[in-house]
Amino acid sequence: MIPIKPAERVANVKYAIRDIVVIANKTKATGKKMIYLNIGDPNLFGFRPPQHMLDAVTNAMNNNMNGYSPSSGIEEAVEAIRRQAERSGINDIHDIFVSTGASEAIELCLTALLNPGDNILLPYPGYPLYTSVVGKLSAEINPYYLNEEDNWNLDIAQIESRIDERTKGIVIINPNNPTGAIYPPETLKQLIDLAEKYNLLIFSDEIYDKLCFKGESYTSLASLTQNVPVITFNGLSKSYIVPGFRIGWAVFSGPIDLMKDYIEGVNKMVRARLCANHPMQFGIKPALELDQSHIDSTLNELEKRNKITVEMLNDIPEISCVSPRAAFYAFPSLHIPDNDLDFVTDLIKETGVVTVHGSGFGQKPGTKHLRVVFLPDEKLLIEAYEKIREFTRKRYNS
After folding, report:
1. Is the pTM of this model over 0.90?
2. So what's the architecture of 8-48+293-396 in CATH?
3. What confidence tens digit (pLDDT) does each residue in 282-315 have?
């Protein structure tokens, strides 16, 4: 037999957040103490989901809800998602399906839209899942660059300049991973006008919608339009601290005459993959509709850790950091002569502090960044940032 070669499509699949773990594991094997600022998993750092959600899932399993569910999700979950979307101001909801994490919903919806050679507007920086999926589909990534000088806001004029006859849609992540930005309503309205002008479908990833810091205002994009087709992605992973549940969803809203064929195309794939995890779906209704106090306690901790992150990183001469307004990520800029991957790789090897290179999320040409996750406790964060400070001092004689 001859060696089996992978399909050409996998050459375009990259996932910086996980790929950097290969380097971290090699460093860990040398016995070095590791501090992980690379994975957005709050469970690893003492955050816990609401007990009533866990109880609902346990009861479902004990009641033998362990077979297949309806492909689009159990009725009580779908209706709870609908009510949640309506509370967010979304009208004209035409369909909802529950997925294996928001990631599966994203992949199904992109797959149903893009043909080889089509392109879709993706935020740079942005969550690398999108670039991996688009690459796998043999479609083209059409990046637009977030404006770091304007708190990582959308630059509508720059987005419009990227649109061509092969552009089929636009993705926004709001609140944003990896920058922690929140987009104001006036900017979202401008984006909606752009989508209407050029006949674009909007994908609005809102998985961090409940993790906005005090004094910050958040608006769901789909609540601002009934004229443009919008798919809103969300899930339990981040706000309800159960990324391992793998429960997400997609909400379709906008003009039904423009969406019906596309929705049916998505549902063909939804039916083909059977269902999301059945017993975990019973956690959706209690999560969305019962006591939300865990969110307040989570935010109290995140805000303290955010403050430490911004202050300590901005105190390093080679680093500047725009203050995140939501979630648990920061995307500081590196003012260094070498590239960010080399910086991050050597940082891991020399200090055990694991971050992710900004080029893995996409970034404006000529800039360099890294992403940090500020979920660890305050003591560990301070230790990590002190190690980064010392590493840069030695590396650049600052």
Report:
1. yes
2. Alpha-Beta Complex (3.90)
3. 999 999 999 999 999 999 999 999 999 999 999 9
DSSP state of 326: B
- Kindly state the DSSP code that residue 64 receives in the 8-state scheme: T
Tokens 């601290």, located at residue: 241
- pLDDT value of residue 339: 94
Peptide bond preceding 3: is omega within 30 degrees of 0, i.e. cis? no
Token readout for 174 is 């709001």
* Closest C-alpha among 353, 361, 385 to residue 17: 361
Question: Can you give the three-state secondary structure of 124-153, one letter per residue?
Answer: ECCCCHHHHHHHHCCCEEEEEECEHHHCCE
Domain 67-289 is found in CATH 3.90.340.10: no
Rg of the Cα atoms in the chain: 21
Residue 327 backbone zone (phi > 0: left; psi -120 to 50: alpha; other: beta):
left
SS3 95: strand
The amino acid at 37: L
CA distance 203 to 169: 7
Q: Which amino acid is at 48?
A: R
Q: Which of 222, 179, 178 is nearest to 323 (CA)?
A: 179
Q: Both tokens of residue 324?
A: 């995140």
Could you tell me which of 41, 21, 8 has the C-alpha nearest to residue 360? 21
Ranges for all domains in the chain classified under CATH 3.90.1150.10: 8-48+293-396
* CB-facing half-sphere around the CA of 90: CA atoms within 13 A: 29
Residue 352 backbone phi and psi in degrees, to 5: 80, 0
Alpha-carbon distance of 159 to 396, in angstroms, equals 36
pLDDT band at 16 (very low <50, low <70, confident <90, very high): low
Strands, DSSP E only, in the chain? Answer: 35-36, 93-100, 119-124, 140-145, 167-173, 201-205, 230-235, 247-253, 319-320, 329-330, 333-334, 353-354, 356-357, 370-373
Could you tell me where in the chain the CATH 3.40.640.10 domains are found? 67-289
